[in-house]
Specification:
Largest sheet: 2 strands, antiparallel
Number of helices: 8
Oligomer: single chain
Strand content: 5-15%
Strand order of the largest sheet: 1-2
Number of strands: 2
Length: 184
């Protein structure tokens, strides 16, 4: 059997196993925290790579979509607020804003109430790119969930939200290990 057919068969078999697991049938393979973490990180990287490729087609670079989306929600933010919202360092945000300003997507203006503050605003050209960002994101999502049923997608979203919520719990002590006596 050629390599491609073996890979396709393996993918089909894996999909069937996933279907059975999601339906509550069969045993999940033993997976450690590193397996889950690695899979999540790899999936996120792959998703970001595909989205970046789709954004380049509309003249945007990786990360610029987040800036524009944040400003579409609340126009007139400082670079520091944008950096905090997007989880990047302030110097990175300053460079990104400068590049986007040169592209004509953003403009910086002194705050009307406090001239010491500079706020960032979307330009008309930036607003025009918002629809392209949405299309690029939808195309990336469609590629990511190809072959999954609607039910599997809903389950995946639910599970990812639980994982994300678990990771946002601040100061929570890790669960105590269960002894064999308690399990019985």
């Amino acid at each position: 059997m050629p390599k491609k057919n073996k890979a396709e068969k393996k993918a089909r078999d894996g999909g069937k196993k996933l279907d059975r697991l999601l339906a509550g049938q069969g045993q999940a393979p033993e997976a450690g925290p590193q397996d889950i973490g690695s899979a999540l990180v790899q999936a996120a990287r792959s998703m970001r790579t595909v989205l970046s490729r789709n954004l380049v087609a509309c003249g945007l670079y990786a990360g610029q979509d987040g800036v524009m989306t944040a400003l579409a929600e609340t126009d007139g933010l400082t670079a520091g607020v944008l950096a905090a919202r997007l989880g990047v360092k302030a110097p990175t945000m300053t460079r990104t804003i400068g590049r986007m300003e040169a592209q004509g997507f953003l403009e910086r203006r002194a705050d009307e109430g406090d001239a010491r503050l500079t706020k960032v605003y979307l330009t008309a050209a930036g607003r025009d790119r918002l629809a392209a960002i949405a299309v690029a994101a939808q195309a990336s999502e469609a590629q990511a969930i190809r072959g999954l049923s609607d039910k599997q997608v809903r389950t995946l979203l639910k599970l990812l939200r639980v994982v994300d919520g678990n990771l946002h719990v601040q100061g929570a002590a890790p669960p105590e290990p269960v002894s064999e006596e308690e399990e019985a």
